[in-house]
Structure formats: structure tokens, C-alpha cells
Amino acid sequence: MSTQARILVVDDHLEMGRMLQEPLTDEGYAVELATSGAEAIRLFRAGPFDAVLSDLRMEEVDGFDVLAAVQAVDPEVPVLLMTAFGGVENAVEAMKRGAWHYFTKPFRLDEVLIYLRRALEDRRLRRENRTLRQVAGRTGLGALVGHSAPMRSLYELVERVAHSEASVLIRGESGCGKELVARALHTEGERASAPFVAVNCTALPPALLESELFGHVKGAFTGATTARRGLFVEADKGTLFLDEIGDMPAELQAKLLRVLEDGEVRAVGADASRTVDVRIVAATHQELEARVKEGKFRADLFYRLNVVTLRLPTLRERREDIPLLAEHFIARARARNPRSKVAGFSAEVIAALGGMPWPGNVRELENLVERLVVLVPRETVELADLKLHAPEVEPEAHPLVLAQDSLWPLRRLEGEYIAWVVARCGGNKTRAAELLGIDVSTIHRRDREKGSGNPPR
Q1: What Rg, from alpha-carbon coordinates, does the chain have?
Q2: Which of 82, 124, 150, 178 could form a disulfide with 313 if both were Cys (CB 3.0 to 4.6 A apart)?
Q3: Burial class (CB in 10 A: 0-12, 13-18, 19+), 139
Q4: Does 142 fall in a domain?
Q5: Residue at a domain's end among 311, 335, 360
Q6: Residues 110, 24: contact at Cβ < 8 Å?
Q7: H or E stretch covering 81
Q8: How far is 452 from 457, CA to CA, in rounded Å?
Q9: How is residue 316 annotated by DSSP?
Q10: DSSP string of 157-186?
Q11: DSSP code string of 317-376
């Protein structure tokens, strides 16, 4: 997270509340704990908060009351409800009243973290779409910003492709804005009033990804205490965006292909399939043709997805858009950091930005601008301030460099590298797990092993 999200946890059992507060804090969230519905409403009104995780069954003021109070103040703040008294009726009622998600106790912590992160990302993108429209002055293509020749060509393609039903494969380097283009395809097409659902195929382990995509029935596997519809069903009549499709496990590629061919999806553990009407937009930074030749990606699935290809330009290929993007990102960062004095960049800074290599593309520029808005104590950012862009890291701090001087056991090197990546991510273990391609529970387990002093098994 580039800024610390504030989470309000509500549970009238103090120990349960603390059980959630500690791991959420470890993930980099700022967590407030309320032990009653009335206290939660008071804290939320004093706010602001980015999300609420509330128990449903509480005396006097229950979770539904908390949900209503949150919606009255800010309907865009996601509320995730949890209860030890499961049941279809409670779940349906919660979703009808506008809850973002519903958990039945006992739940898995990693599941809470995944859905909380998705809720925060959904809220961020909703706010981002509004801000981008205001700053860029565009009404037709949502969050896309830029007037360079490559971007004008992209706008024309998006407007043309958006009104078709063809599957689209968005290709480009990481940080180019592939999800923003996917959303533009959705909002410009006939499915705009239906759901847009996004999933990163690298963010979840294969077993959980299958359940997320196709759903599962109650009791389908250990921990499946309630049924889940799955993202294909959630996206029915709308668009499903599959980010980093090139990393999808082989066994799921076959199941995805069947859905694309038959228009039917079967939940894990279910006896029957269900028909869905979903437009697929996929994205990758990899050359899928090479992965097909290596046997790592199905050729038939590739041809199904690659009906229409949109190649996104790198920031290096549209440097003339940098001043407009910088202005836009300043406005967004100021909205998140209202105490900042930064109002703009000097001409020297704009010129320097135009000459940078930008391996991380637009995302790297956005992160740089936010750091400058947070850290520079003046209205105008000067050339000397750009040293904040790439703070020096001592090579000796890298575990792989340390390991060159002596032979380390693989387990120790792995643990040190995980710790190093977590530190580089500002302590955000969920983000570190994404980069490492592991489950966040693995990081928590390594922390417990290190804290106990017991050697890892």
C-alpha cells in the first residue's frame, strides 16, 4: 500500500477483535478496535476509515446497524460482516443491505486478508476512476490519461473493440495500466451496467484460485464452511478480467478453456454446471507464444483468448504524456495527503522525468510522485528532491550478496530473502507474498518460527 489504509474492526468479544487486529496491523493497516456497535458508529463518524470488518450478532447495536450507519456517512466504504451463526438467510440479507462480503466463523485469516485487500482495491479504483475523469478531462475512456500518438491509437482501438463481444488479450510491460484498459473496454461497451470483476492469477495459490473463479459448494474441501458463487457467476452478463493469465496453472487452463467453449461453469464439489454469459478480457506481460512452445501454456486457450490483441505502449514510448500524468498523480496524491504543500514540479524536474528510463512504467511514475508529495515540504518540487526517487540500498543488505561470502543452508537463505522482500515492501506482507509467488500464511509461519527460536522443519 502506498498509503496506510485505516480499518475499523468491530467485535463485542475483545479477544476476537484482537485476534484480527494483530495480523491486520502486521499487513501494514492502521487498525482501530471497537467492542460494541455503538462505539463503532461513533468512531466511524469521527473517521475517516477505508473499510469496516464487523461482527453481525451484537447486543443493542448489531452489524446491520453498523452497516447502515457506514452507508449513511460514506456508501463507498466497504463493510465486511462476520458471524458465528451462519446461514443462507443471513448471507443473503447482508448482501441485500449492501455488505461487501460475508464470513462465517471460524474463518481462515488468509481469506479475510484476500477479501479485505480486494475490497480496498475496489474502493480505490472507484475513486481513481472519478479523479482520472476530472483531471484528464475525458468522458469516454474513463481512467486513461495521455494525448501522445500511441495513446490516441489506443483510444481508437478501445472504442472500436469495446462494442464487440470478442475476447481481448491486453499485452504490455508491468505498470502500463492493463487493468485500466480492461475497465475502459467494459465501461465503453454494452455490458457497462453489469459487473466488472478482476482477479490476478498470480495473487492466489492454485487451489484457492480455482475456488475463486468457479466457486465451491459447502463442504467441498476443508474450510469450505459456506458455499461461494465464484467470480464467473459474479461477472454474469458483465466482464471478467484475468490479469497475468500467463501464470495460470496448467490444470486451471483446461477448466477455463471449457468455460470459454461451453459457456458453463461448475463449482468445486458441485454435481451440475451453470450457464454464464461473461466477456473475457485477459492480460499478460509475458510472451505467450514462447510459453506455448515451452509447453507451459495451452495453445488452444491462447487462440481462444487472443481474438483481439491490444498492445499497451511503455512510458518510454510516450514520454510526451509525462507532464500530464505527473499533474494527474499530484492531484490524486494531494487528495490522499491533504496536508501536503506540493502543488507542482519545476521545469527542471519535468525535463528530468522525461529523461528517466522508467522500467516500472506509469506505476513507477505514480509511486515517485506520491513519495514527493508526501516528503517535499514546499509548493514546488525541485531537481534536488528527485534523490527521493531511488534511495540508496547498501549491497550488503541483500541476502544473496551476503551468501556469496559463505555457504548458507537453502532454508536459511530462503527465510532471509523473504524477510528482505517484506522489508523492501515497507512491511506489507501481502504485497511481498504476491511478489514472491507464495501464500501470505507462509510468511506468517516463518515469522513464528523465527520468533520461537525453533529451527524450521
Answers
A1: 23
A2: 150
A3: exposed
A4: no
A5: 311
A6: no
A7: strand 79-83
A8: 13
A9: G
A10: HHHHHTTS---EEEE--TTS-HHHHHHHHH
A11: GGGGGHHHHHHHHHHHHHHH-TT----EE-HHHHHHHHTS--TTHHHHHHHHHHHHHHH-
Is-contact 204 243, C-beta < 8 A?
Answer: no
Per-residue pLDDT of 11-55, as tens digits, reads 888 888 888 888 898 888 889 998 888 899 989 988 788 899 988
Q: Is residue 258 part of a domain?
A: yes
Strand ranges (DSSP E) for 108-226?
A: 168-171, 196-200
pLDDT by residue (tens digit) across 416-440?
778 777 766 656 777 777 777 787 7
pLDDT at 173 over 80: yes
Q: What CATH number is attached to the domain comprising 333?
A: 1.10.8.60
Residue 77 identity: V
pLDDT grade for 129, boundaries at 50, 70 and 90: low
Q: Cell 484480527 sits at which residue?
A: 20
Domain residue limits at 426: 399-451
Residues 360 and 300 in one domain: no
Residue 253 lies in a domain: yes
User: 281: part of which helix (H) or strand (E)?
Assistant: strand 279-284
- Orientation angle between helical segments 322-336 and 109-136, nearest 10 degrees: 120
Residues 347 and 258 in one domain: no
Instruction: Find cell 490483441 and name the residue.
Output: 309
**Residue 195: all three cell numbers together:** 459487473
Cβ atoms 146, 324 nearer than 8 A: yes
Residues 253 and 231 in one domain: yes
d(CA 237, CA 194): 6
Per-residue pLDDT band for 94 (boundaries 50, 70, 90) equals: confident
The answer to the question of residue 351 being in a domain is: yes
Query: Tens of pLDDT along 369-408?
Result: 999 999 999 899 998 888 765 444 343 445 555 555 556 6
Cα 420 versus chain centre, distance: 22
The answer to whether 283 and 243 are in contact (CB under 8 A) is: yes
